[in-house]
Design goal:
The protein is of the alpha/beta class and 274 residues long. Helix content is 22%, strand content 28%. The strands form three sheets. A seven-stranded mixed beta sheet has the order 8-5-4-3-2-1-17. The protein has a six-stranded mixed beta sheet with strand order 9-10-13-14-15-16. Strand 14 (181-186), helix 5 and strand 15 (208-214) form a beta-alpha-beta unit. The longest helix is centred in the C-terminal third of the chain and has 14 residues, at 222-235. Residues 67, 69-70, 188, 214, 244-245 line the site of one fe (ii) ion (FE2).
């Protein structure tokens, strides 16, 4: 049995949980545990307590990419646990968004590697797929193959004093190999959910049967949203748990198209896969 518990998400519909712009999901399988992302703040700690999850036992964390809303909770986790942290080598980019209230670039990256290492973090950085637990893999670098998905145009990063467009090359998803096929967990899916799932199918030579997590479709253009829905129809997934950067409107659109396959994946949602 595979159990996935959403600990941090933008919405919470049960009493006393904290909601925030961020994401964190816990994967449990046969006594092994992998935490995928850490949310933005100590909401991770707060919500885990309410869910009866003992975070001090976490020994494996996968970070989907180096944005504050996915790795911000890591410093709080490191106060109580010393896990191995799997991520892509480009996760520490000094990255910014052009979208801000004051017209200046807004910092959306994370702390330096040294900051986390001083707190006891042990990083395992790879751009290749890594098996972090039995049948649970990172995707490694996600190759972009579709012609309708693009990385958010507002992202840039500094290398030295030079500014570059940020294609979020460090974006990685988590792939769980099951009897039903592959279940893919997205952080923000900055490189496009169809790209990521096609890439996973190629890498692991198995069909994807479902996904959970952030899709970034909420801020994508109309064309990308529509084409994604068309592709999802062809993929005929049995579980779709859009979260976080999907937004309410896009989640509603997905529900209208795919009905009972859609799970409203927010804080406290538990997904069981036999
Ligand atoms: Fe992100
Ligand atoms: Fe995000």
């Amino acid at each position: 049995m595979i159990k996935i518990t959403t600990i941090v998400e933008n919405t919470a519909t049960k009493a006393r949980f904290k909601a925030e712009h961020g994401l964190s999901m816990l994967v449990e399988r046969d006594g092994e545990t992998v935490l995928f992302d850490t949310g933005q703040t100590d909401a991770l700690i707060h919500n885990a307590k309410l869910l009866g999850i003992d975070l001090s036992k976490i020994d494996k964390v996968v970070l989907s990419h180096g944005h504050y809303d996915h790795a911000g909770g890591l410093k709080y986790l490191l106060e109580i646990a010393k896990p191995k942290i799997y991520a892509h080598p480009e996760i520490f980019r000094k990255r910014y968004s052009k979208l801000s209230d004051d017209g200046n670039l807004r910092y959306i990256g994370i702390e330096d590697r040294e900051f986390y290492e001083q707190l006891g973090a042990e990083f395992v950085l790879s751009s290749e797929p890594v098996e972090v637990a039995d049948g649970i893999y990172t995707t490694g670098f996600e190759k972009m193959v579709t012609d309708f998905e693009e990385v958010d145009k507002n992202f840039v990063y500094y290398k030295g004093d030079k500014l570059f467009k940020d294609y979020v090359d460090d974006d990685m998803s988590l792939v769980i190999d099951t009897n039903r096929g592959l279940l893919v967990l997205f952080g923000c899916a900055h490189r496009g959910i169809i790209n990521i799932m096609l890439d996973a199918q190629k890498k692991f030579s198995k069909e994807v049967f479902g996904f959970l997590g952030g899709t970034h479709l909420g801020v994508a253009g109309e064309l990308q949203q529509q084409r994604t829905i068309e592709e999802l129809k062809l993929m005929d997934l049995s579980i779709m748990g859009p979260s976080h950067c999907t937004g309410m409107l896009m989640t509603a659109k997905l529900y209208c198209e795919f009905k009972e396959a859609v799970v409203f994946n927010n804080v406290g949602t538990i997904t069981l896969i036999a």
